[in-house]
Amino acid sequence: MSTVEKQLDDLKAQIADEIPDDISISDVTYEGPELVIYTRDPKRFAQDGDLIRTLAGKLRKRITVRPDPDVLSRPTDAEAEIRSVIPEEAGVTDLDFHADTGEVVIEAQKPGMVIGRHGSTLREITQRVGWTPEVVRTPPIESSTVSNVRNFLKQERDDRRDILERVGRQIHREEMSDEEWVRITTLGCCREVGRASFILNTPETRVLIDCGDKPGADGEVPYLQVPEALGAGAQNLDAVVLTHAHLDHSALIPLLYKYGYDGPIYCTEPTRDLMGLLTLDYLDVAAKEGRAPPYESEMVREAIKHTIPLEYGDVTDIAPDVKLTFHNAGHILGSAVSHFHIGDGLYNVAFSGDIHYDDTRLFNGAVNEFPRVETLVLESTYGGRNDYQTDQEDSERKLKEVINETYEKGGKVLIPAFAVGRSQEIMLVIEEAMRSGDIPEMPVHLDGMIWEATAIHTTYPEYLRDDLRDRIFHEDENPFLAPQFNHIDGGEEERQEVADGDQCIVLSTSGMVTGGPIMSWLEHLGSHSDSRMVFVGYQAQGTLGRRIQNGWDEIPINGRGGRSNTLTLQMDVETVDGFSGHADRQGLENFVRTMNPRPEKVLCVHGDESSVQDLSSALYHEFNMRTFAPKNLETFRFK
Q: pLDDT tens digits for 300-351?
């Protein structure tokens, strides 16, 4: 008998001792980080609301209880009973029964009303029909991404269960080493912005954190070939952790499956969906530009199938000696500060990913309180000594001034924006400004993936700022449904109509002018001297956006028919600071200053060379802590 089998037998016996005699346990198994208990008495389990909580506390496991398939009521009978329990105002749109696991997936416009106070409605459903309810939100704006991901995972349920059971056995395997040490190897994003990637190593476990590309630098990928990463074989990776979905962190995650990785990806649920959206678009853009894509779309599906979504604050075993907890990073939807607790109190490391310390219109500010943290790996995008961004209120005032001035000249405002995060932030500013009369009402055209990314935001309002979440719950107050917003879906003809029409605002991807529909808008509007191009996000070195920002006005354009042309840019160019999803220098210092507890060591990464060195020096002098500005391929041992 394997160690895991013996462990499960012991757990089954322990559970039997803890629960009332009239509740039978037919099987106990691992699915990913969760312990799954199968019972012929699901209704009795549901009657005692504290039973599962008590078991989870005593066993120190995340627990899911499922009914044996042969004790379930028929789906047609169960559906009528379930609908009678759930308030009509919950807006149930679909019920999907899965007899193999005894789960019923309930899709509703207001999931909170399906869950009930402290889960009371869910327990009542199980008490009445035996099925275990799982609740998902009906997107207020229809999202093809969310729909496709949900349908794909439904089709792949059998495969996913096999994957989860295999992952569960890996997580709970017996530890093989008596040694204790912790190492971090930098595979990218050191003294540069982009290609974020790190390996966290113990004698027992190897975890990859992020795997992104480098904007504006075709072919520069993380150093995955080194022995600490894939050099010893992708199968030697135990887990992948994705902090957020921006391509400089996620673009090459699917590539791992091409190299033979077959393990889990841990991220939040919105990060999973956004990763799917952005990586598929990444392949599409590569094909359109005549570049060989690094992997096939099938690898994106593999990545989604292997994803294990975690919620903020859930402490989760991802290896025999590693626990992972996500916390809100305030950067984009679902972005996470990733906290690793290693060994039995041996060491704690937090990876900031990308963070925004203060509240924004979209998100609450980044969380920086942890039970323990000895080392922090900190992004430094705006870590330079002069990288102080404009106050948000001043930024919004400046943007409104630019829009008003351009409107009065009869021109159009073109804003290159990242589909995820900055676009929604700007949409909220514009919607409120028009509603309050600060700027004239005019069409706001959304091009590229912006509308789809916005739909995903409305699917997960619990990840948004508290007051915005409340507005989205009320359809008549949802700011993203304002009538001024128009999704450009008619291609070049519609763009030409907009260019020939009256004053308007255009938000278009890509945010760093590295391809995508923004290039078409430059062709249509670049020669309009009465119009303005407004940068509201970070422009990395080497990107066309950075060059235009620095004064370039001769713009290379791949013309229709494959001809290369040069466009003379006649529209004004403005930069409005303060809308970045990254903390500025002050925000980064405040993040460290108010950390509880404050770390002993900080690795400053994800910034230009001067930025990481400036921030590293400042943190050392101000807080008397050990700081580093590592290069790529450095390894740090912490124990």
A: 999 999 999 999 999 999 999 999 999 999 999 999 999 999 999 999 999 9
- Mean pLDDT confidence for 116-133: 91
Please name the amino acid found at residue 395.
S
CB atoms inside a 10 Å sphere around CB 334: 28
CB 205 within 8 A of CB 186: no
Structure confidence by residue, pLDDT tens digits, 449-466: 999 999 999 999 999 998
Q: Is the pLDDT of residue 560 over 80?
A: no
Strand (E) or helix (H) holding 446:
strand 444-447
Query: DSSP state, 291?
Result: P
Residue 45, pLDDT > 70, answer yes
Region 393-575: CATH code: 3.40.50.10890
Residue 307 pairs in a beta bridge with 265
Per CATH, the number for 181-386+582-637 is 3.60.15.10
For residue 563, is pLDDT > 80? Answer: no
Backbone angles phi, psi at 119, to 5 degrees: 80, 15
* Residue 71, number of CB atoms within 10 A of its CB: 15
Strands 444-447 and 62-67: unpaired
- E-assigned strand segments in 518-569: 532-535, 554-558, 564-568
Instruction: Calculate the alpha carbon distances from 219 to 215, 216, 278, 543, 600 in Å.
Output: 10, 10, 18, 14, 36
Residues 6+ apart with CB under 8 A from 11: 28, 35, 59, 61
Beta-carbon count within 10 A of 175 CB: 14
Q: In this structure, is the dihedral angle defined by the CA atoms of residues 174, 177, 179 and 180, taken in order, positive or negative?
A: negative
Both tokens assigned to 81 = 């009973």
- Residues comprising the chain, all counted: 639
Best CA proximity match to 425, nearest among 480, 362, 477: 362
The H or E element containing residue 7 is helix 3-18
**According to the 3-state scheme, what is the secondary structure of 48-96?**
CCCHHHHHHHHHCCEEEEEECHHHCCCHHHHHHHHHHHCCHHHCEEEEE
Q: Could you give the angle at which helices 392-408 and 422-435 cross, rounded to 10 degrees?
A: 70
Label the pairing between strands 322-328 and 336-342: antiparallel
Of 257, 187, 194, nearest to 224 (Cα)? 187
Domain covering 1-39+53-64+150-173 in this structure, CATH number: 3.30.300.230
Range(s) within the chain of domains with CATH label 3.30.300.230: 1-39+53-64+150-173
Q: Report d(CA 588, CA 606) in Å as an integer.
A: 13
Contact 271, 242 (CB under 8 A): yes
- DSSP letters spanning 392-419: HHHHHHHHHHHHHHHHHTT--EEEE--T
Please give the structure tokens belonging to residue 55: 């078991």
* pLDDT, position 475: 62
Token pair 């704690």: residue: 348
The per-residue pLDDT for range 251-293, each reduced to its tens digit, is 999 999 999 999 999 999 999 999 999 999 999 888 887 888 9
